[in-house]
UniProtKB/TrEMBL annotation:
One of its GO terms (molecular function) is glycosyltransferase activity. This is O-fucosyltransferase family protein. Keywords: Carbohydrate metabolism, Fucose metabolism, Glycosyltransferase, Transferase. Pfam families: O-FucT. It comes from Salix viminalis (Common osier). Belongs to the glycosyltransferase GT106 family. GO terms for biological process: fucose metabolic process. The keyword Methyltransferase does not apply. The lineage of its organism: Eukaryota, Viridiplantae, Streptophyta, Embryophyta, Tracheophyta. The keyword Transferase applies.
Amino acid sequence: MVAHSLCEYGGGEEERKELEAYREIHFPALTLLKKTTKLPSPAMLREEGLCPLTPEEAVLMLAALGFGRKTHIFIAGANIYGGRSRLTALTNLYPNLVTKEKLLSATELKPFMNFSSQPAPRLMHLP
């Protein structure tokens, strides 16, 4: 989601190159669009509130809305941009993080694999 959003997250030139390389592999149509169309800058996207929240921003938002430490939070994404270490602020304040891997066994998850954006919505309909 971060790579598809065209947003940047304060990682400088190294992050920009990393995200661009990821986009070229996983979102070739987006890469082509960037080369042929003038798109909004990452700064403008962020200013307009069109970027996904970072884990740190999510913590601030949840706390401001009054969610306490005992709140259970479901992490729908398979891979968090920046790795598990990016979740430190979130796990420190909200230790009850749940992922699909914690809810289902590998056997139960198998029919949902290889659908990068589909496991979370499909799992929501399980009895």
